[in-house]
């Protein structure tokens, strides 16, 4: 009992020390980069770049899944609605004021489609 408690305390101390070290080393770097990151996050080209990577990647993942096992129409509709929301948000259509809500809803729908797709596949490692 004493040995397992000691091991647990040692592991906790090592973990906390590591977290402290990471915090101390990365916080100054992050504080230095935040203005740059904030400026890049507001640039319109960043949104387009993310969508340019996200949509083909999502399409490829769903297409490969469909080749292995046909996707339900509802799942495909969910993915397409999410992709449309992401694209509309990145393009600022129909209004710039809707950019954030469209992007958030679109990414949520697309992520939900991916989770649903992942859950419907067999997972041999876990036997489910």
Care to count the β-strands? 0
Succession of helices and strands: HHHH
| Average pLDDT over all residues | 75
Question: Mind summarizing the main beta sheet?
Answer: none
Gyration radius (Cα, Å) is 22 Å
Residue stretches low in confidence (pLDDT < 50, at least 5 long) are: none
Terminal CA distance: 36 Å
Q: Which word captures the global form?
A: flat
Whole-number count of domains: 2
Helix content: over 70%
Give the DSSP E fraction (strand runs of 2 or more residues).
under 5%
Estimated structural class: mainly alpha
Q: In DSSP terms, counting alpha (H) and pi (I) runs of 4 or more, how many helices?
A: 4
3D architecture notes:
This protein is mainly α and 128 residues long. The chain has 2 domains: 1-42; 44-128, no CATH class. Helix content is 84%, strand content 0%. It contains 4 helices and no strands. The protein has helices at 2-42, 44-68, 73-91, 99-120. Helix 2 packs antiparallel against helix 3 and helix 3 runs antiparallel to helix 4. The chain starts with a helix and ends in an 8-residue tail after the last helix. It comes from Luteimonas marina. One of its GO terms (cellular component) is membrane.
């Amino acid at each position: 009992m004493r040995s397992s408690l000691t091991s647990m305390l040692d592991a906790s101390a090592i973990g906390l020390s590591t977290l402290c070290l990471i915090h101390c080393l990365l916080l100054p770097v992050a504080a230095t980069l935040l203005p740059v990151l904030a400026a890049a996050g507001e640039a319109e080209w960043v949104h387009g770049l993310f969508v340019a990577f996200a949509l083909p990647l999502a399409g490829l993942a769903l297409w490969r899944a469909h080749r292995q096992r046909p996707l339900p129409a509802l799942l495909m509709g969910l993915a397409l609605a999410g992709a449309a929301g992401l694209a509309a948000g990145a393009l600022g259509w129909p209004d710039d004021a809707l950019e954030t809500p469209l992007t958030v809803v679109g990414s949520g729908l697309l992520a939900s489609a991916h989770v649903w797709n992942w859950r419907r596949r067999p997972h041999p490692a876990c036997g489910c």
